[in-house]
Amino acid sequence: MIPEMIDDFMLRALTAGIGVAVVAAPLGCFVVWRRMAYFGATLAHSALLGVALGLVLSLDLTLGVVISSVAVTLLVALFQRQRLIGSDTLLGILAHSGLAVGLVALSFLHGVRVDLMTYLFGDVLAVSATEIAWIYGGGALVLATLALIWRPLLALTIHEELARAEGVPALRIQIAFMLTLAIAVAIAMKVVGVLLIISLLIIPAAAARGLSRTPEQMAILATAAGALSVLGGLFASLQWDTPSGPSIVVVATVLFALGLAAGAVRRRAQN
Amino acid sequence: MTGDGPALGPPEPLESPKPVEPLVRASAVDLRIGRTRILEHVDIAVDAGEIVTLVGPNGAGKSSLVRVILGLLKPSGGTVWRKPGLRVGYLPQALSLDPVLPITVRRLLALAGSGTAAKIGPALAEVGAEELADRALHDLSGGELQRVMLARALLRDPDLLVLDEPLRGIDLGGQLALYDLIGRLRRRRGIGVLMISHDLHVVMAATDRVVCLNHHVCCSGAPEAVSRSPEYAALFGAAAARQLAVYAHQHDHGHDLHGHVVDMAAAGGQR
Fold first, then answer.
1. Which chain A residue has its CA at the smallest distance from B96's CA?
2. Which of A4, A139, A159, A233 has its CA 20 to 30 A from that of A198?
């Protein structure tokens, strides 16, 4: 009876976690390459606002987060036209005001029992079938979009002006990328929570950098590192009864350290 | 053809028969950024098979003009006409690539577009960079990177090559070799070349037409005519103007793109 139950929720957690890791890792490579880590963190933090929105309007919570992420993305794009406030400051304001407003809004919802820790740090062991459907449906959409815009987005990332001179529709590609990022954040929330989503995007990518010679290699290695982090984190969580989201991030960080070391060894061997 | 500069003494020598329609034509282009007037009523055109060099002091608006012509900047007034279906190869100024994105020379060239793997070798050979194919892009020196980016531009099979200070980070011998290469490409492929330079010494040898820009077109025409014009002397000083006239006859040997000394007669024979 009990082993069966473990099997069931472990299987669901693994399905959800690995699904999210596989979506987040290649996207995270672009976050790393384009130095958008802070933008990703802003999306993630303000996702709490989306949770509040979902609860108030009794929408699906993932849908609420998609809506808030898209709104934040458009807000950032709008504010980038002005130059009096630096983009890091702007993102800092949006990230933490999003989190704060979300927390305040949740405190008003007396009728609803809200487990804040679930949203902040994730609870993949309690993932539902609907959420898994969101992860795989949204994830497929994200990966299909990314595959479609891979070459122009890469060209823009390597040298934006050059790509634009060669006719790459920069604005459309960038907005498509930011929207896929917004969807990825929404589906990753359940697994690692709003405070740790960004780590699932950037840590596997950073772990893969030292071992990669081409962008595609880095994306594949990052995907493997992300999936391994979920696998390792979930088993550690089961073994030692540690919180699942943070355990996944800890494993990812260990992989990052190993990746750094392996990269250094490889470079020394080449020289 | 290039507008409001005063007529110069001797007529332009006819070096190549010119087709009726230019590749690009900017007419009466004004560009203001804030209250600063960057470009005032600039006319310029580049024909197929023609090498046009923009010279002018720092801050004269050379890069801005190029960016207007490429469609990267919207002019505040005037029009820019590009031949329909024009394929542009662009070499931006002071290229620097971010090492957070891993990419090899070969992969970069494969991403350039129509380039099949088979075309990459010849394109690199054309710019004397075949040994760089498997190097990481961010490990290249300035001159190596310029040559790789030129190979990339050529892979796109351009009608018009736009080079913004292509000589930066290349020693004098390498500069002459690069000009020589550009001249050969023009003859072999019949492409038009628009080039920015403030390396006044080297400009003249391989240019059909010099356009001297200081927010407006000061003077334009064949290199010898421009270097003798009073507007040019006023802009760069009489000494610089004299130096140019002398320079073309100074060297008794050349350098290949690696900076090795080559016998000019033998090198000429090879070509």
1. A159
2. A159
Residue B123 lies in a domain: no
pTM for the full model? 0.81
Cβ of residue A37 closer than 8 Å to a chain B Cβ: no
Handedness of CA A25, A26, A28, A33 (dihedral sign): positive
Residues of B within 8 A of A33 (CB-CB) are: 98, 100-101
Q: In what order do the strands lie in the sheet with B192-196?
A: B88-91, B160-164, B192-196, B51-55, B209-214, B216-221
Task: State pLDDT tens for residues B25-53.
Answer: 988 888 888 888 888 888 998 988 888 98
Contact B70 A165 (CB under 8 A): yes
> Min CA distance, B215 vs chain A (Å)?
22
CATH number, domain of B182, equals 3.40.50.300
Burial zone of B240 (CB within 10 Å; 0-12 exposed, 13-18 middle, 19+ buried) = middle
Contact A33 B98 (CB under 8 A): yes
Query: What ipTM did this prediction achieve?
Result: 0.82
Tokens coding A59: 């929408």
Q: Is residue B221 part of a domain?
A: yes
pLDDT at residue number A206: 96
- Residue ranges covered by each domain of chain A: 2-196
Cα A186 versus chain centre, distance? 8
For domain A2-196, give the CATH number: 1.10.3470.10
Rounded to whole angstroms, the Cα distance separating B12 from B47 reads 15
Show residues of chain A in contact with B90, CB under 8 Å: 162, 165-166
Q: Which domain holds residue B211?
A: 24-87+158-270
Contact B92/A at CB under 8 A: yes
In a domain, B254, yes or no: yes
Q: What total number of domains does chain B contain?
A: 1
| B126: confidence class by pLDDT, cuts 50, 70, 90 | confident
* Cβ–Cβ gap B88/A165 under 8 Å: yes
